[in-house]
Amino acid sequence: MQHFITPANAPPFPEIDCGEGVYLWDRAGKRYLDGSSGAVVCNIGHGNARVKAALLKQVDRVSFAYGRVWESEANEDMAARLVRMADWGYGACFFVSGGTEAVEAALKLARQLSVARGRPDRWKVISRAPSYHGSTLAVLGVTGDPDFGGPFAPMFVMHPKVPAPLSYRPAAGMDAEAYATHCARELERRIAEEGEDTVLAFIMEPVGGVSTGALVAPDAYYREIRQICDRHGVLLIFDEVMSGAGRTGKFLAAHHWRECRPDIVVLAKGLSGGYAPLGAVMTTGEIVDEVRAMGGFLHGHTYAANPLACAVGAAVLDELERRELIARAAAMGERLQMRLKEVQARRDCIGDVRGRGLLCAAEIVADRATKRIFPAEAGAMDKLRALAMEEGLMLLSRRTSGGRFGEWLMACPPLIVSEEEVDMFAEMLDCALKRFEDWAAREGFV
Ligand SMILES: Cc1ncc(COP(=O)(O)O)c(C=O)c1O
């Protein structure tokens, strides 16, 4: 029985059997290096015994206690750890079941704050194109990729977009720095165009996820967008669903730019490392007090602050600290980027290698000189992922906005990856790319 509605002509998914450390095994016994940590989720790898023990302990105590009625040691512990590790004076967390839910909760929290502050006209949320923030109807309005909106367009409110400061594909005549400055100014221009008094928030991924292929902007960009938001009373929301929980070599990717503290941070994925559905919204004590004073947050889900998910999340954060995995992400990320650049020197189809920590990507092109991408009918990323799987490497890829911004492979192994495994990742990718280039030449795509 299929669990997902795939296109009619799509090949069936391979069947997973088990996972351990950075590896997965299919039902035929073939081993794969989990080069993308699933969907950039499994930060502490598979089969972690301590997380399993924490989960079972919580099941023995209580699995469910409704968050609107009960406080639990598990969610108190999780909130305290999260706020401590975020290390930025945040005062409260709200837990949900995943990234999209967390983004939606953050938007509602921002809106309620604005109403509490006597600014009911502020409701627009500016985001970047391209970007990904989730897939429910409300959140589709801020996700900056029309591929996800498609048939649902009449059903949601599309919020304003500003260009993401793409480093490999800046606007004509600009280098990456100049384009980033231009993009920051576009934010200010757009706030004015929309009418400052109508703009509630600006949301962005501080290190891009799959939508931009691990985009990192120049340092000045972060300073500038913080200043712009401050100048115009716009809340700054960082979507750290993918970049948070240590993946970029800091607990929050925002920590790379200390002068740019977001007002609200959204986390999920690595927060529970794939061991339980968990997302979080974190914000300052002042914001929470203001929302509390107007009657509390008008939001909730049955599984909000679920003790089982929070106990798992606390155990995952404990592992990050106990095994010093955040520093490891920084070190292994540098090694991975170095190895990917070596592969790039041999393989013309890699146009760019970028990222921070273990949130990395390799942009794939048909022609490096012109940055031309493969035509849609080539299905280049599907082909490349299939070849990598044959080599024993699981990868994630994206052709954002129908290829308008390029297409890339994510290189995001679990944070527990060893030096030898990073080297193995690069070797397997190199073999897959060699076969991919031969295929592309045979098919006449290059
Ligand atoms: C940056 C970002 N925000 C939000 C989401 C949505 O999270 P979820 O798929 O858990 O709903 C994702 C998922 O990939 C993401 O990468």
Descriptive key words:
Aspartate Aminotransferase, domain 1, 15 strands, alpha/beta, 7-stranded mixed β-sheet, 13 helices, 446 residues, binds pyridoxal-5'-phosphate, Aspartate Aminotransferase, domain 2
Task: Give a description of the structure.
The chain is an alpha/beta fold and 446 residues long. The protein has two domains: 151 residues, Aspartate Aminotransferase, domain 1 (Alpha-Beta Complex), CATH 3.90.1150; 274 residues, Type I PLP-dependent aspartate aminotransferase-like (Major domain) (Aspartate Aminotransferase, domain 2), CATH 3.40.640.10. The chain is 39% helix and 17% strand. The chain is built from 13 helices and 15 strands. Strands 4-10-9-8-7-5-6 form a seven-stranded mixed sheet, sandwiched between helices. The chain has a four-stranded mixed sheet with strand order 1-2-3-13. The protein has a four-stranded antiparallel sheet with strand order 11-12-15-14. Helix 4 crosses helix 9 and helix 12 crosses helix 13. The longest helix has 24 residues. It is globular, with a radius of gyration of 21 Å. The mean pLDDT is 96. Bound molecules: pyridoxal-5'-phosphate. Pyridoxal-5'-phosphate binds next to helix 4.
Describe the structure concisely for a colleague.
The chain is α/β, with parallel strands linked by helices. It folds into two domains: 151 residues, Aspartate Aminotransferase, domain 1 (Alpha-Beta Complex), CATH 3.90.1150.10; 274 residues, Aspartate Aminotransferase, domain 2, CATH 3.40.640.10.
